[in-house]
């Protein structure tokens, strides 16, 4: 089958290319209808790589995609993870740590793993999660980032009845805010430099918001902190420090945001306060949970949606997505 796909080949080198695709008896084809642009897509576009992984050859972008099974036309969310199922991590229920993971739109492996920004993609049958066809594409295209947020909440050990801080209210941070509310937190405070991001965090369910440029309320710093659980979703060192200061002794801090070379770890404070610091990377079974939460309306992600572009306008879409003063989440439509 001849299709069009969005390929990145280097810094500011993104184009729509003709390619071919075929599925074997163990795979299925999905006609992609909608895709969300993630921060990693922007990094590949702007820098030709992500972190320590640079492009070695052209790669199809995208991992936040939904579509319709071909030829049945069943609406499905596409899980971009393809773990091996056999390594020690897969066997122990931690497939997100798979030693041979093939993840959509990633240059971590060579040859790179093509992503989902294409007219059709081929996947294994367990990578598709059917959902009610009456649901809007705008909502369901948030399945992958919501799965990241739900996994972070699970990594915290639970938030029922707890006071929660979320630093960095971009798309993932705001989805963590919403996931914490849905999971029973008693209070969720969002923190971000941007007033626009703080407003969206409020729309996503934050009980209050604060700016790190303002004086931190004494309540949050008294004695040994205020929050039972903190989520650091910005990747900024100052935000990490503020989480350590505001998290209660014996509380949990979940690291979600990534930036290359993140250092300056306040080890003494973590040790003295016995803070449980945990990383959170992608997701496991949370992908299907995210689909169900969106399908049932448990989470409304639409305050995050800035604009939808036809996939043929990929350069304009990426440029807007990269402008954090104007955009939160940009989606691409692959339908005529």
Automatic annotation (TrEMBL):
InterPro entries given in the database record: ADH-like_C (IPR013149), ADH-like_N (IPR013154), GroES-like_sf (IPR011032), NAD(P)-bd_dom_sf (IPR036291)
Ranges where the Alcohol dehydrogenase-like N-terminal domain occurs: 25-131
EC number: 1.1.1.264
Positions in coiled-coil regions: none
Every Alcohol dehydrogenase-like C-terminal domain range: 171-295
Organism whose genome encodes this protein: Vibrio rhizosphaerae
Named cofactor requirement(s): Zn(2+)
Top-level lineage group: Bacteria
Keywords from the named record: Metal-binding, Oxidoreductase, Zinc
GO MF annotation: an example: L-idonate 5-dehydrogenase [NAD(P)+] activity
PANTHER family: SORBITOL DEHYDROGENASE
Gene it is expressed from: idnD
Enzyme class (EC, first level): oxidoreductase
Family the entry assigns: Belongs to the zinc-containing alcohol dehydrogenase family.
Protein name: L-idonate 5-dehydrogenase
């Amino acid at each position: 089958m001849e299709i069009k796909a969005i390929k990145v080949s280097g810094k500011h080198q993104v184009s729509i290319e003709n390619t071919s695709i075929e599925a074997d008896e163990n795979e299925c084809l999905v006609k992609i209808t909608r895709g969300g642009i993630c921060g990693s897509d922007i990094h590949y576009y702007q820098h030709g790589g992500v972190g320590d992984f640079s492009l070695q050859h052209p790669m199809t972008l995208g991992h936040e995609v939904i579509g319709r099974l071909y030829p049945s036309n069943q609406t499905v969310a596409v899980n971009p993870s393809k773990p091996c199922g056999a390594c020690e991590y897969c066997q122990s229920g931690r497939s997100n740590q798979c030693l041979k993971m093939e993840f959509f739109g990633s240059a971590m492996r060579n040859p790179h793993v093509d992503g989902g920004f294409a007219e059709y993609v081929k996947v294994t049958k367990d990578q598709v999660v059917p959902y009610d066809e009456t649901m809007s594409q705008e909502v369901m295209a948030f399945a992958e980032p919501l799965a990241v947020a739900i996994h972070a909440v699970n990594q915290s050990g639970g938030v029922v009845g707890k006071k929660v801080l979320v630093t960095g209210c971009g798309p993932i941070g705001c989805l963590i805010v919403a996931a914490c509310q849905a999971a029973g937190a008693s209070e969720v405070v969002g923190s971000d430099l941007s007033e626009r991001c703080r407003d969206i965090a409020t729309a996503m369910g934050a009980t209050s918001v604060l700016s790190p440029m303002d004086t931190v309320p004494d309540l949050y710093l008294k004695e040994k902190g205020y929050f039972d659980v903190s989520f650091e979703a910005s990747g900024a060192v100052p935000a990490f420090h503020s989480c350590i200061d505001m998290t209660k002794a014996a509380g949990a801090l979940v690291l979600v945001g990534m930036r290359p070379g993140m250092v300056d770890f306040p080890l003494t404070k973590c040790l003295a306060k016995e803070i449980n610091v945990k990383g959170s990377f992608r997701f496991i079974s949370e992908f299907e949970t995210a689909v169900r939460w969106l399908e049932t309306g448990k989470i409304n992600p639409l305050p995050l949606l800035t604009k939808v572009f036809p996939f043929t306008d990929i350069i304009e879409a990426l440029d807007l997505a990269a402008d954090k003063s104007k955009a939160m989440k940009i989606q691409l439509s692959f339908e005529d």
